[in-house]
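Quick one, tokens below:
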């Protein structure tokens, strides 16, 4: 398959401004995102390539594995507010319509119980069919 076609599929039509936003977010990760990224980028645990702060359509997801069409979001306290929670639900719905599965973890889960987070990611990867 042509590399351009793969890239277009991998980013789902994201525009330049979304790539710029992803770059900004990549350079300003939260502590929990950094902790998870250190493990995801090794590839030895999950046997899959993840990208951090990855553009998808009009959104940026915290981590994305194109092989399994799996996005991982790490949410801070602000995501518990009604307004942000409602936005997250709509955003998740739009991303899932693209055939992407989303896993959500709180900052606390990542920092305080990484083994549980790791197990949930491994279970999800094992349940998905690779592209």
């Amino acid at each position: 398959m042509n590399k351009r076609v793969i890239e277009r599929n991998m980013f789902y039509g994201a525009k330049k401004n979304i790539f710029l936003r992803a770059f900004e977010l990549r350079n300003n990760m939260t502590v929990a995102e950094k902790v998870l990224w250190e493990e995801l980028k090794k590839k030895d645990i999950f046997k899959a390539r993840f990208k951090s702060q990855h553009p998808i359509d009009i959104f940026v997801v915290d981590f994305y594995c194109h092989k399994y069409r799996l996005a991982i979001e790490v949410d801070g306290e602000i995501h518990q507010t009604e307004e942000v929670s409602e936005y997250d639900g709509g955003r998740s719905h739009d991303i899932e319509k693209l055939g992407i599965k989303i896993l959500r973890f709180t900052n606390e889960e990542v920092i305080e119980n990484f083994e549980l987070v790791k197990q949930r990611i491994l279970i999800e990867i094992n349940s998905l069919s690779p592209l």
